[in-house]
């Protein structure tokens, strides 16, 4: 029931964001929102397909590649429990999409829940029919931070 409510909330949030976007921007925004849920669910099978083999991930505690990120998610050493997305901006250039999400992330790290404000930058590239994530960077920000559209 809880997962259903979270999925419904994400759907409603992403629906309001999609109204002012192009179809490509809508597609990438939807994928970004789904990614947050897959991370919360520790669904490494879906994430493995989304993350490009050369993808890089930058966190507060370090940076690493795809295999390490998937291992961290699967093991729960960082459990991305909930990402409250407050704002999203998307820019498309050719077959590349850049997504900025301002979020409040609740994560289970080193034995405790931690709540942190981030602007997360995601870089996607269209490969055939699918988008692949090439980069994900967490930037710690104040809760008053705004993404310029």
From TrEMBL:
Annotated protein name in UniProt: Uncharacterized protein DUF4440
Superkingdom of the source species: Bacteria
SUPFAM superfamilies linked: NTF2-like
Signal sequence interval, chain numbering: 1-20
Keyword Secreted: no
Source species: Algoriphagus yeomjeoni
Entry keywords, A to Z: Signal
Coiled-coil positions: none
Domain DUF4440: 35-133
Transmembrane regions listed in the UniProt entry: none
InterPro entries: DUF4440, NTF2-like_dom_sf
């Amino acid at each position: 029931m809880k997962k259903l409510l979270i999925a419904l909330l994400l759907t409603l949030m992403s629906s309001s964001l999609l109204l002012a976007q192009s179809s490509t921007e809508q597609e990438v925004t939807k994928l970004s929102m789904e990614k947050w849920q897959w991370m919360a669910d520790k669904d490494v099978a879906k994430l493995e397909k989304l993350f490009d083999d050369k993808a890089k991930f930058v966190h507060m505690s370090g940076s690493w590649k795809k295999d390490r990120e998937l291992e961290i998610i699967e093991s729960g050493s960082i459990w991305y429990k909930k990402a409250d997305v407050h704002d999203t901006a998307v820019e498309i250039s050719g077959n590349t999409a850049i997504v900025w999400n301002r979020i409040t992330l609740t994560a289970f790290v080193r034995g405790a829940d931690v709540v942190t404000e981030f602007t997360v930058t995601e870089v996607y590239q269209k490969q055939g029919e699918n988008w692949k994530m090439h980069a994900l960077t967490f930037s710690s920000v104040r809760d008053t931070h705004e993404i310029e559209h």
